[in-house]
Amino acid sequence: MALTGCNNASSAQRGASQHPSGSGVPDDGILRLGQASPPQNSTMKASADARFTVTPTKVRTGTRAEMQRSGLKEEDGSSPQVPVFVWSTLTHKSGTPMSLNDMNDLVVRTNQDQRTRPLIVVMGEAQWRDCPDTDYNKKLHAGQSEKICTAYLIPEGQTAVAVELSRGFYQMPLQWPVSF
What is the CA radius of gyration of the chain? Predict the structure, then answer.
């Protein structure tokens, strides 16, 4: 089995927030876990008219033992990693049906300002005790929601400090700080 996670080291400093007034989002883009994002526009051609919200509800950093029990094999020479689990509710608000994969665009930011995308299992399956598999091809229609758990990998010794949702190049990402 092999695994991969996409990491982006420290991003460049971002400019001031550009939130339209009345968006329901504070100017700094910081929300609380359990608070839904404002409706987001689909970036997929097949569902260009669709809108959805993302609500991260819980974040837990796993242990090295969970990583070892998962069935995933780390690449030779790579630094030890631990899982981070993010529970979210994805809600399709309007437009063409969308797959869960098209709505799940969250990243985890660590205390070392490293950003990591969801774990992609290339071959085989990862088994996480508290984070069941999700069928990301499942399509939601307007008004439907799905509760999911997504696994991320971060370097051992770092901690997750926020979950972020990108909103393109011209707006700061939405952030849900993690407190333990």
Answer: 16
DSSP per-residue codes, 21-62: TTSSS-TT-B--TTPPPPPEE---GGGTT-EEEEEEEEEEE-
CB 67, CB 107: distance < 8 Å = no
Cα 69 to the center of its chain, rounded Å: 23
For residue 72, the tally of other CB atoms under 10 A from its CB is 23
* DSSP E strands, 70-144: 81-94, 98-99, 106-110, 115-116, 120-123, 139-140
* CA pair distance 163, 24, nearest whole angstrom: 18
Q: What is the CATH number of domain 30-177?
A: 2.60.40.1240
Q: How far is residue 118's CA from residue 108's CA, in Å, rounded to a whole number?
A: 8
Dig out the tokens for 173 from the structure.
Answer: 């990402």
| Region at 157 (left for phi over 0; alpha for psi -120 to 50; beta for the rest) | left
Domain ranges of the chain: 30-177
Helix (H, G, I), strand (E, B) or coil at 69: helix
Q: Divide the 180 residues of the chain into consecutive groups of 10 and give the mean pLDDT of each group.
A: 41 37 68 95 89 96 91 79 95 95 90 89 70 89 95 93 87 87
d(CA 164, CA 180) in angstroms, rounded, equals 17
